[in-house]
Amino acid sequence: MFKFLGIALFCSLFTVISAQGQVLHATVPEELAKTGRLILESPEFAIRDSANQVFLEKLEAYVTTEKGFEDELKNVTNMMRLTPRKKGKFCIFTWQMPNQKFQYQRFGLVVVKTKKGLVATRLQDRLNTLEQPEFKRFDADEWPGAIYYKLLPEGHNKNHYTLLGFAMGETVHQKIVEVIEVKDNGRVRFGNRMFKIDQYMDKTLRRPPMRLIFKYNAKYSVTVNWHEEEEKIIMDHLAPADPKLKGVYQTYGPDFTYDALYWKDDWWHLQTNVKFNTGQDNPIVPPQKPTDLPPGGKQAQGG
Description:
It is built from 4 helices and 19 strands. The protein has 303 residues and is an alpha+beta fold.
């Protein structure tokens, strides 16, 4: 029944009746925008799941055309689209869907310009089942899924690019500094030894990690952002509420200090205790005298 309702709903979404009574079909970007909202907002999983399948098929078909590849799809608000600033060699699209338990499952698509044309690769989210993901490379079918919100101008080494991503969880969120490898034939892999770091998140590293994963309590907001002026990734330093809870990431949150990653000699390096002005430390200047009293500073007398 839900499948039938989903099909009927899609038909109504993509058909518009003009003032003259003519049937006007929505453009592909309009279809993607409407279907994308349905993926996030429908209360029925069957409809969300059907909408997601339609969304993936239509997105892949559209962005593997020259017009679709160049389209920024700004009105498709359920999805992030990233592409390198200069060459535009590839585009990566990521989005998420609440599953039956209303836990977010992530989806992705990478489209690469090759000599043979545009090549699309679907990404299969395996983040929550991967063992020691910091130290392994993964193909598209073992993707450490995240919603990527920044593709960095730094951290570009041959066919490797650095991404900043976010993976939402029930009790623990994750911010990920990821490396994507995009080969000339269109093949995509995730992870690379580009981090010259000995210690982070209370871990001592004996070998360079393939990516950095920052885990913290889901009730907190954590900064992991690229700053143009600093030419660094500025990050909240995370710590447990009690030192005895080291490694229990559900207790981790910002401790109001900052760390940074900076790019030098084809490596990301960690800098701790960075002085960073968030713009939120403006001094509060109290008034010289109360402003709710009449002139003279005396309370008015009742008549």
